[in-house]
Design goal:
Layout lengths: L2 H16 L4 E8 L2 E9 L15 E2 L5 H13 L27 H5 L5 E3 L5 E3 L12 H14 L3 H13 L4 E3 L33 E3 L1 H12 L3 E2 L2 E2 L3 H8 L13 E2 L4 E2 L18 E4 L5 E5 L4 E7 L10 H15 L12
Length: about 350
């Protein structure tokens, strides 16, 4: 094994240990081929199966990239006129005063300014488009929007139009425990469970996939919707999802987003992408540790999987996310950035 590959895997193992994850996996594709694959650990914090190619991880918020593709279809098929349509044009069941000026673009780029209290009431943190904050309420609204537009769940569209043509066998919204599912650890001393959310939350939660199929999901985007020479997803849908759709912020520290994906424009302090990763790259993350990095400049897809809720580093977790993508950049012959470009 190339020394730089081993160095990256050692780093993945180190963070796995520090964060009390029981499992880790790495799959790297370049030029449509797997060039590195690594599995270690077990499915939970009690006696359980060894991690392997069939192990299905709960990817938590990384499922946003799947919802993003569904909304990309809605735009492509003119179900939505524009990203700049106000949400109130489609959904009437929310307080119109609070939602005033909130567009689909704001919801898809985390610039909507909405949040939710423990009692379920919605309030506004800042005016739509004026800042950026990662909150969960936009996922529920966008999920509702898709169902309003198509009269069925976005998961059905993905299964029929994407998963089946790709031949996916191990990507599913799981509702029952099985030996293939990697359990999520909240606390090392507590029993782990395969689910993060209630079955009926309506947001396509508890999406499980293997490291290989997660990498193929990234590779589909890298190839602009093509898989083994066949155009599975329209190129325009992929372009919508993975190009910058966020507005310019007064605060230069805030990240750029496509449709939920973080997109590398230039190094941003509050972005999860490392400053050494080339422009045009994009990444998605879940709080159980899955990370999918796509680097078009080097025709590269990098997947890292864990099974511990909350990413290592506490309030400084972004540092470790950037550190991983920077190390991946160094390992797979992406030119390193100079000190002048570092944060």
């Amino acid at each position: 094994m190339h020394p730089s590959y081993q160095k990256l895997l050692s780093y993945v193992s180190e963070i796995k240990h520090l964060n009390h994850s029981s499992a880790a996996a790495v799959v790297v594709m370049q030029n449509d081929q797997i060039i590195l694959e690594h599995y270690e650990g077990v499915h939970g914090n009690e006696h359980s199966n060894l991690i392997g190619i069939d192990s299905m991880f709960n990817i938590a918020s990384a499922r946003k990239s799947y919802l993003a593709l569904a909304i990309g279809y809605a735009l492509y098929e003119k179900k939505i006129h524009s990203l700049d349509d106000c949400v109130s044009k489609y959904l009437k069941n929310y307080d119109q005063q609070i939602f005033q000026g909130t567009t689909i673009r704001h919801l898809m780029t985390h610039s909507h300014g909405l949040d939710e209290r423990d009692d379920g009431s919605i309030y506004r943190e800042f005016a739509a488009g004026e800042s950026w904050a990662y909150r969960g309420i936009n996922i529920r609204i966008i999920t509702e929007l898709f169902k309003y537009l198509y009269d069925y769940d976005f998961t059905q569209l993905l299964k029929e139009r994407v998963f089946m043509p790709l031949g996916f066998k191990s990507t599913e919204w799981s509702t029952e425990e099985s030996e293939a599912l990697v359990k999520v650890i909240d606390y090392p001393e507590q029993k782990a469970t395969f689910q993060l959310y209630p079955y009926d939350d309506g947001m396509g939660s508890n999406l499980h996939t293997t490291a290989r199929e997660f990498a193929l999901w990234g590779n589909l985007h890298l190839n602009m919707g093509r898989h083994e020479g066949i155009q599975v997803v329209p190129e325009d849908v992929i372009r919508l999802c993975t190009s910058i759709q966020s507005l310019q912020y007064d605060d230069g520290r805030l990240p750029a987003n496509g449709l939920f994906w973080y997109v590398q424009e230039k190094a941003k302090e509050r972005s999860e992408i490392g400053e050494c990763v080339p422009k045009g790259s994009y990444q998605i993350l879940g709080n159980t540790g899955p990370l999918l990095l796509v680097v078009p400049e080097n025709h590269l897809v990098v997947v890292r999987m864990y099974n511990k809720r909350y990413n290592y580093g506490g309030k400084n977790y972004l540092h470790y996310l950037r550190e991983f993508s920077n190390r991946a950049s160094d390992a797979f012959t992406i030119p390193s950035c100079s000190k002048m470009h570092r944060l």
